[in-house]
Design goal:
single chain; alpha+beta; four-stranded antiparallel β-sheet; 1 helix; 61% helix; 21% strand; rod-shaped
Length: 98
């Protein structure tokens, strides 16, 4: 009977510690995901600004250029309408007007 009580105690203590560790790690996991999403958002905005730079370069070299179509910046496509650039990068979306 003494072995059964010891085994049960070990299982209960182990389960309580597992709940404590998992409960403590969840906020850290969400904080890391929020930081990653903010980094993707910043990269999306920089890529959209680069896309605007390409559009401005095309406008400077060809005054008849009116936008439209897709432009690829660093392997990421961005869509250009008449006055708007929209880019989606890993779930983050930036829409800029030029």
């Amino acid at each position: 009977m003494r072995g059964f009580i010891a085994l049960t105690s070990v299982l209960i203590i182990s389960a309580a510690l597992m709940v404590l560790v998992v409960g403590a790690s969840i906020p850290v996991f969400y904080a890391r995901m929020n930081m990653l999403e903010s980094e993707w958002r910043a990269q999306s905005e920089f890529l959209a600004e680069s896309c605007i730079g390409v559009v401005e370069l095309r406008l400077a070299s060809d005054p008849a250029y009116r936008g439209g179509g897709d432009i690829e910046v660093d392997g990421v496509p961005c869509s250009v309408s008449t006055s708007t650039v929209r880019i989606a990068y890993r779930g983050a979306v930036s829409v800029l007007h030029f």
